[in-house]
Amino acid sequence: MRRFLGMEMLELIRSLPNQIEEALQYELPLLEMPKRIFICGMGGSAIAGDITKTLAKNSKIAIEVVRDYSLPSYATKGDLLIASSYSGDTEETISAFEDGKSKNLTLLAISSGGKLENLAQKYEVPHIKIPQGYPPRTALGYLLTPIVKVLKNLGIIDDKTFEDYIKLPKFLQSLQEEFEKENSLAIELASKYYRRIPVIYTSTALYPVALRWKAQINENSKAFCHTMEFPEMNHNEINGIKNPAGRCEDLWVTFLQDEEDHPRVKLRFEITKELIENSIQGYSIIESKGSNWVHRIFYLIYLGDYVSLYLAKFYKEDPIAIPRISELKRRLSQ
């Protein structure tokens, strides 16, 4: 692939398999089985919690992702709070961590340093330190893998799922050549999204994947993106894809589908395509690929990462820079 603006982001995307392999070697604390698990984070740090819920879909322990300054009122002693902040300085996560301390939750922190590491040392609770120097959204392997391993040690993620996760780096490496070809699916999708509004629809089980696509397109491509899950979409939004007609005609809808989707959800996808196709620019159907649930999830995640990179190229945007987020944080700190 020829070098272009964004080559640095390409290398960061390529680093995901190595991140997972490295993080699988981390020494982790032994924790007691919690009543519930709260994973607190924002942005690229929070998506690790969303994906964890998807991987642990058969868990009998409730897992809740908190994107806020405080925990729900029902959080209490016996629950586990995993605070995930790549920088360690995310104010919402710091606040939620302090809230967890005040409510006597079991605490675990994950960061590359910052205030969160200092608080973990102050409260004498476990802290998992991950490498510095990455944009948080490109450190998914470092942020996710420790949580997966902790939940495996607790028996919340089953042995088969964890075995599939261990094999994930090799699977991701096999996708790199596929997604970096001149005529790749990733480039095709990015071309469909260029100068249009991407809309990502998927099942509830795969909704964290759609959220990852949205965030990557927002941050890397500097483009607007909308997501919605099925079947909820059919109870409201399907009726709204009509007006204003000129705007709806700019929509390019992508359906992210999986072989394990509920039969009724599959049927809803088919009917929805027929009902909205005359109101939108067009649609794409993307089927997950892989021999197991873990690999199929990450096939879609990795595809979305590449799509966002190529869309940034089409818009001539630097996929690393996040000027508005940086300016927002600067003003908030004053």
Task: Give the helix/strand layout.
Blueprint: H1 7-14, H2 16-23, E1 36-40, H3 43-55, E2 62-66, E3 80-84, H4 91-102, E4 106-111, H5 114-123, E5 127-129, H6 140-153, H7 159-166, H8 168-179, H9 185-193, E6 197-203, H10 207-221, E7 226-230, H11 237-240, H12 245-248, E8 251-257, H13 263-276, E9 282-287, H14 293-315, H15 323-332
Parallel strand pairs: 1-2, 1-3, 3-4, 4-5, 6-7, 6-8, 8-9
Helix pairs in contact: 2-6, 2-8, 3-6, 3-10, 8-14, 9-14, 10-14
Keywords: Isomerase
Protein name: Bifunctional phosphoglucose/phosphomannose isomerase
GO molecular function: carbohydrate derivative binding; glucose-6-phosphate isomerase activity; mannose-6-phosphate isomerase activity
List the secondary-structure elements in sequence, H or E: HHEHEEHEHEHHHHEHEHHEHEHH
Query: CATH fold name of the largest domain, please?
Result: Rossmann fold
- Overall helicity: 40-55%
Summing up helix and strand content along with how strands pair, one would put the structural category as alpha/beta
User: Biggest sheet, strands in spatial order?
Assistant: 2-1-3-4-5
Determine the mean pLDDT: 96
Low-pLDDT residue spans: none
| Subunit organisation of the chains | single chain
Q: Which percent range describes the beta-strand content?
A: 5-15%
| Inertia-based shape | globular
The N- and C-terminal alpha carbons lie at a distance of 43 Å
Helix count, DSSP H or I runs of 4 or more residues: 15
